[in-house]
Design goal:
Radius of gyration: 22 Å
Structural class: alpha+beta
Mean pLDDT: 88
Largest sheet: 3 strands, antiparallel
Strand content: 5-15%
Number of strands: 6
Keywords: DNA-binding, Transcription, Transcription regulation
Number of helices: 9
Shape: elongated
Strand order of the largest sheet: 1-3-2
InterPro entries: ArsR-like_HTH, DUF2087, HTH_ArsR_DNA-bd_dom, HTH_MetalResp_TranReg, WH-like_DNA-bd_sf, WH_DNA-bd_sf
Protein name: Metalloregulator ArsR/SmtB family transcription factor
Order of helices and strands: HHEHHEEHHHEHHEE
């Protein structure tokens, strides 16, 4: 489960109308007009909120003749809600059992004499160790413009877009509106 997906789920759920819709659908399927009537809202407003809930797969629809009924996907709702509790033990945050000597060997095998990355390995453990290596020189608590991150990465590898994306996907960094910041070390996977 990626952190971004968990955040997106909670942002989508974090709306009073959507919570009220979920509450109504817990009792069983309803069509849009019935939901609008029970909540005292207009059908287009309900359609908008149902679309958002369908995007995160918490609500699904079935047609019965000319009427579309909306159902609550209770299993998905429970699984996604519980992911936030599992963050600390989830595999994506599990620390590798690796010694400093093993890390040094991996870095030696993939970094040339000028300190540049020869190639990004496919094996996850090695890739994460090299990504961590490339974070050297960046400071915790400091925000960076995308251009600054690109320049930093180019010291190690010409494909800064791929490496920058890997930093975010591996949860070494957080990105919002082209501003980057290092995540806390306890969120790092290595």
């Amino acid at each position: 489960m990626q952190l971004d997906r968990i955040v997106h789920f909670h942002k989508t759920i974090g709306d009073k109308t959507r919570i009220r819709i979920i509450s109504l659908l817990k009792s069983g399927p309803l069509h849009g007009q019935a939901i609008a009537g029970k909540l005292g809202l207009k059908p287009p407003t309900i359609s908008h909120h149902l679309t958002k809930l369908k995007e995160i797969d918490v609500v699904y629809q079935r047609r019965d003749k000319n009427t579309i009924y909306f159902y609550l996907n209770k299993d998905k709702l429970e699984r996604m809600a519980m992911e936030i509790i599992r963050i600390g033990s989830d595999e994506m945050f599990a620390k590798f059992d690796i010694t400093n000597e093993e890390k040094a060997n991996i870095i030696r095998n993939f970094i040339d004499s000028k300190g540049r990355l020869k190639s990004l390995p496919a094996q996850r453990k090695k890739k994460l160790i090299l990504l961590e290596y490339m974070l050297r020189g960046l400071e915790h608590g400091k925000t960076y413009q995308e251009k600054e991150i690109n320049e930093h990465i180019q010291q190690y590898h010409p494909d800064y877009a791929t490496i920058r994306r890997e930093f975010v996907m591996a949860h070494f960094m957080y990105r919002q509106d082209s501003i980057y910041e290092l995540n806390r070390v306890d969120m790092w996977p290595v």
